[in-house]
Amino acid sequence: MPIFVWKYPMSSKHEHFSRNLRGLAGGFLLVLVMTGCSTAPVAKKPPRQEEQTPESALTYYQELGRLTPGALGRERTILVAVPQTPYTQIRMAMLLGHPRVQQDLGKALSLLDSVLKSTDPAAVPFQPLARQIADNYLERIKLEGQFEKQAQTLRESQRKATELQEKLDSLADIERTLTPRSRAVRPDGAKR
After folding, report:
1. Of 54, 132, 48, which is closest to residue 97 (Cα–Cα)?
2. What DSSP assignment string belongs to the chain?
3. Staple partner for 71: which of 55, 67, 105, 172, CB 3.0–4.6 Å?
4. 150, exposed or middle or buried, with CB in 10 Å at 0-12, 13-18, 19+?
5. Which segments in the chain show pLDDT lower than 50?
6. pTM (global) more than 0.70
7. Vertex 48 angle, CA 127 and 68, to 5°
8. 191 — phi, psi (to 5°)?
């Protein structure tokens, strides 16, 4: 199929410039196609040491949700063995408060408190995160206390209801064992 190109009348200068421009565009397009098709391996970035930022701590918390209980146990062992920096303390506190492990919110709050009270410049960026996690854990402890109090009240109510039912059953048994009263008979033989 022929392609029709409308040509404006140009001077020889413009025609020469137009040809050069088309040649450059074609060459550029050829370079793009060739580099796009090349199979040269892309240089990999060297592995970075884990960044110790509040954002990476939040990413760590998200990763905890994907770990198996066994992997969570291994993670705890690792965190105990590494140097205790504010970043490590935050991660350990997250692990100790995670719902899929045996929680120790008291120890987690102790770790968070040490980050909050630290004057170490490395702890300063973690202090807002530590405050937020500590507030969350304190709220959880408060709610668990309220839940336990409600459960205790419910157990007490059930115990009292059981006692009352037993008393009612005992009264019913006593009533059944009572001998029925004989009805008085009138002298004319009619019952009252």
Report:
1. 132
2. -----------HHHHHHHHHHHHHHHHHHHHHHHHHH--PPPPPPPPPPPP-SHHHHHHHHHHHTTS-HHHHHHHHHHHHHS---HHHHHHHHHHHT-TTS---HHHHHHHHHHHHH---TTTGGGHHHHHHHHHHHHHHHHHHHHHHHHHHHHHHHHHHHHHHHHHHHHHHHHHHHSPPPPPPB-TTS-B-
3. 67
4. exposed
5. 29-33, 38, 40-49
6. no
7. 70
8. -80, 145
Q: The tokens 């048994």 sit on which residue?
A: 173
The token duo for 128 is 């807002």
Structure tokens at 185: 């008979």
Length of the chain: 192
Encoding tokens for residue 115?
A: 């980050």
